[in-house]
Write a structure and sequence with these properties.
heterotrimer; A mainly alpha (about 100); B mainly alpha (about 190); C mainly alpha (about 650); B: about 190 residues; mainly alpha; Four Helix Bundle (Hemerythrin (Met), subunit A); 2 domains; extended; C: about 650 residues; two-stranded antiparallel ribbon; 26 helices; 4 strands; about 70% helix; about 5% strand
Chain lengths: ~100, ~190, ~650
């Protein structure tokens, strides 16, 4: 079954995914694209939970459950994030993160 | 061996698609690439023999979330609208940071010796369901309830924000007052 | 005997100052003068009482002993070193007490009439009170610190009174000039006090004057340029005294100080404050005499003699009546300094007694001259003697008193000036022929320039005045009469019995030849003035024309003011102030600006980071995470 898969390989893949997501998060000029990069990041992290649960700590299902919850939180986050983005779009007619600078106040 | 090949294919898809997703200049394509990443992740879960998790990944992520994203894109973008390319400085800095991060984590998990696997994981769906509703040791009933309340709160928050006093906000924005609404709603 | 009431002598003027100053606007117009005059009147009576009790009640075989009438420790520094405030009575302080209170009282009385039309009389009387208080405090000081304190107070009240007409730019400038020049000298005074007191270990006069004890305590007092530190300290103290007493070259403020009201000139710049320097030297006379064979005393003598001649020469050419009197004051103070400078101690202390005697008589006749000049100015509304002439018909009373004062200052017997001046010349003759000769010439010049203004003002041309001049009101007349009487009789006082360097009575012999010689030169001066100025003629103009350059130089006061101005501009401003200003602007301010600009620059940089762009923040977080991961994994692995 999973015997052929090396733990290091998966970790490498997920860390590459994670940092690609990070790259997207800091460079994209569109809030929805930023949110999508965030999804990649979350996904990479979630895979790691499952992986470690499956390949190292096999006595219980904590990693899997954590991934469930991550999925749920990600769903909520995306839903609310998109609503906020829509609101911002209505407010400013733009979803360029460089124009959302209210944080500096 | 077959698993390995399948894993490599999935890994290839995940990496390439996520790369495409963060670099594509068309937002809708970017979303489709993201969908590919999420589906490949689901495939990985299937490969790990976690069918239930893979199914959830497909339905919640690839189904629900992607639909939300696509609708949001349709609401905020004209079709065929090109995304601006990030400027060179940001790109180089971002890649540099990402590379350093990858290198460091690579060294981290290659130098780390993982504990050997202890027995086999009891990953039957019935076991998962029992654990989910079990309130004793190793049970997840409390987080389960918390997550359901969170979901409920998320739905209510989304409705509230989507409805909420935009003209009023717009007026405040024009008069130059800082709008703290967006940041406070993010907290929810 | 109980002397503690003497504390009221300085306190009464202080009371007048406080009342007039605090109730400045609420006091009825006439009352301020009454308060000031009565306070000084009582103070004068008290000081007469003190003088009588002291000189006729405490004599003994040892002479007059100093009395510490009242004392309180002001600053307790160590057990050995404390600064006291007190009232110190000895012959010279009592003599000064009498002089200051009398002149101050008369000037107050005179001012009631003189200032009757002025606005802000209350301010004037308040400051007069302050001045009298500080002068009395200075006179009665038992130690150098109190002296210095009141010395500065006197300077301040002098500044305030010179600048009384503060809407007149020249008065403001004169006040500033007086203050700055005397303050400049006072810096040296302070250094001198510290230097001298460091070696004597005390601020008290009885310790300061005990040279033998000081030298015993410090067996090797450091020597600088051949003179001991004590002498240097005394010379620095003398610089302070020279500043206050307008000795060359610190005299430049005195002529300008005549911008103040004339009674003020009479009080401060003729009779009391300007003799503070003389008083100071007299106070420390045993120290001056004892240290380094009296080298400092030689300096005093030379400076005094030179100033005396210098001022007398300038006085001959001045046209402003008050300025002539100012230079005459400077000249007479030079005389007093000369007297002190040529004096010995004990049986040879003729110069000391003569100097104090001259101080005493000079106060009377110089105050009279100023008050008379004030009466003339009050009547003619001009300071220039060119605008005067023929006044004897209009102001007979002023004429007589002014003439008495002129005779007194010229040293004509039996007026007061004759005795004191003759004594000084006699002392100088015994000490040094050159000093004597200079003083002798100066006596002639004095007679000449005094009678020059006398004849020009009261005789000379008859003029048509817009308002007919007349003798002043009675409150101004009384001081004139009193002072004129004083100028006549004061010379007969047995000063040698009372005021001597070693406090014991001094035996003097009267040298007929010497007296005749000094009277002779005075008479020559008077006759010359009579010939030149009795009738209006162009002879004086011809003489001054023929002198040409010399006359011009003298008339411009030897260009001393210009010299100071030049030194200030060229040396101090350009060579010192400008680099300092440059340093201040570029280095000091530059440092501050650098700090400020760096802060602004930093904040600008930080502001750019705080762009509100969450992606930048996220990037920051990423960098920080990477940094800490690297740090804790590879550099601090033990954690």
């Amino acid at each position: 079954m999973e015997t052929g898969i090396q733990i290091g390989d998966v970790l490498l893949v997920t860390s590459i995914m994670f940092f690609i997501g990070v790259y997207g998060f800091v460079t994209r000029k569109n809030l929805i694209a930023v949110l999508m990069s965030l999804e990649i990041i979350i996904n990479a992290a979630a895979i790691n939970f499952v992986l470690i649960n499956k390949l190292v700590f096999t006595t219980n299902l904590h990693g899997v459950f954590f991934t469930f919850f991550i999925l749920a939180v990600a769903a909520v986050e995306v839903a609310i994030g998109l609503v906020i983005i829509l609101n911002l779009y209505r407010l400013k007619d733009s979803i360029d993160p460089e124009e959302i600078t209210t944080l500096k106040h | 061996m077959t698993e390995r090949i399948i894993f490599y294919i999935l890994a290839f898809i995940m990496i390439v698609f996520s790369l495409m997703s963060v670099t594509s200049t068309k937002i809708i394509r970017s979303a489709i690439y993201l969908l590919g990443v999420l589906m490949a992740t689901a495939g990985l879960y299937f490969l790990f023999n976690l069918n239930f998790l893979g199914a959830i990944q497909l339905t919640v992520y690839a189904g629900g979330i992607m639909v939300l994203i696509v609708i949001a894109i349709l609401l905020t973008h004209h079709v065929g609208f090109g995304l601006p390319v990030p400027d060179k400085k940001h790109m180089i800095l971002g890649w540099l940071a990402a590379m350093i991060g990858i290198t460091i984590s690579f060294f981290q998990f290659t130098t780390h010796t993982f504990k050997p696997k202890i027995g086999n994981l009891d990953d039957r769906v019935s076991k998962m369901g029992a654990d989910m509703l079990h309130y004793g040791d190793g049970g997840f009933v409390l987080p389960f309830e918390v997550i359901s309340i969170l979901l409920l709160a998320g739905i209510i928050a989304a409705i509230t924000i989507a409805k909420g006093g935009i003209p009023h906000l717009k007026k405040r924005l024009k008069s130059g007052q800082p709008t703290t609404v967006s940041s406070s709603t993010k907290k929810q | 005997m109980n002397w503690s009431y003497t504390i009221w002598i300085p306190l009464l003027p202080f009371l007048s100052f406080v009342i007039n100053g605090v109730l400045y606007n609420r006091l009825p117009k006439k009352l301020s003068g009454v308060i000031g005059t009565s306070a000084l009147g009582v103070a004068a009576l008290l000081s007469y009482l003190t003088a009588g009790r002291y000189f006729f009640g405490t004599t003994s075989a040892e002479g007059y002993q100093p009395i510490l009438a009242w004392q309180s420790t002001w600053m307790h520094i160590t057990d050995k070193l404390a600064i006291d405030m007190g009232v110190y009575l000895d012959p010279i302080s009592i003599m000064m007490l009498v002089v200051v209170t009398t002149i101050s009282f008369l000037v107050h009385l005179y001012s009631v009439g003189y200032m009757s039309e002025e606005e802000g009389r209350n301010r004037y009387f308040a400051w007069l009170g302050l001045f009298s208080f500080s002068m009395l405090g200075l006179v009665l000081a038992p130690n150098l610190v109190q002296t210095y304190m009141f010395w500065e107070l006197v300077g301040v009240s002098s500044f305030l009174l010179i600048g009384y007409y503060y809407d007149k730019p020249s008065a403001v400038r004169a006040a500033l000039k007086a203050f700055i020049v005397t303050r400049f000298a006072d810096v040296f005074f302070l250094i001198g006090i510290l230097l001298y007191s460091y070696y004597s270990g005390s601020f008290r006069f009885e310790d300061l004057n005990n040279i033998a004890a000081i030298q015993a305590a410090h067996s090797s007092i450091p020597v600088f340029m051949g003179l001991s530190a004590l002498t240097w300290g005394l010379m620095l103290i003398f610089v302070g005294g020279a500043g206050k007493s307008a000795m060359f070259p610190l005299h430049i403020w005195l002529p300008d100080a005549m911008e103040g009201p004339t009674p003020v000139s009479a009080l401060i710049h003729a009779a009391t404050m300007v003799v503070a320097g003389v008083y100071l030297v007299a106070r420390l006379f045993p120290a001056f005499h004892g240290s380094d064979d009296g080298f400092a005393l030689h300096v005093v003598a030379v400076v005094g003699t030179f100033s005396s001649l210098f001022a007398a020469i300038i006085a001959m050419t001045q046209m402003d009546i008050k300025r002539v009197l100012a230079f005459s004051t400077m000249s007479q103070i030079g005389y007093m300094m000369m007297g002190l400078g040529v004096s010995g101690y004990g049986e040879e202390g003729l110069g000391y007694t003569a100097s104090m005697f001259h101080l005493f008589t000079h106060a009377a006749f110089k105050a009279l001259l100023f008050l008379g000049a004030g009466a003339i100015i009050h009547a003619v509304h001009s300071n220039s003697i060119k605008d005067m002439g023929g006044l004897r018909k209009y102001m007979p009373m002023t004429n007589i008193t002014f003439l008495i004062a002129c005779l007194a200052i010229s040293g004509v017997p039996p007026f007061a000036g004759f005795f004191s001046k003759d004594m000084i010349l006699e002392a100088a003759y015994e000490h040094n022929k050159l000093i004597y000769f200079t003083g002798y010439i100066t006596a002639g010049l004095t007679a000449f320039y005094m009678f020059r203004i006398y004849f020009m003002a009261f005789w000379g041309r008859n003029r048509d005045y817009d308002h007919e001049p007349h003798d002043p009101v009675w409150s101004m007349k009384i001081p004139l009469i009193v002072l004129a009487a004083g100028s006549v009789v004061l010379g007969l006082l047995p000063f040698n019995e009372w005021v001597t360097s070693d406090l014991r009575p001094l035996h003097i012999h009267f040298d007929m030849m010497m007296a005749a010689a000094s009277v002779g030169i005075g008479v020559i001066g008077i006759i010359t003035a009579y010939l030149l100025y009795r009738k209006p003629s162009d002879a004086p103009d011809k003489i001054s024309h023929s002198l040409g350059f010399v006359y011009k130089t003298v008339k411009n006061k030897f260009y001393m003011d210009e010299l100071y101005l030049g030194i200030t501009r060229e040396v101090i401003l350009k060579r010192i102030a400008a680099p300092v200003a440059w340093f201040d602007r570029h280095i000091v301010d530059g440092t501050m600006n650098l700090i400020g600009n760096t802060t602004v620059g930093l904040s600008k940089g930080i502001k750019r980071i705080q762009s509100g762009d969450f992606q930048v923040y996220a990037f920051g977080i990423l960098i920080a995470v990477i940094f800490f991961v690297v740090l804790f994994n590879y550099f601090i692995p033990t954690i």
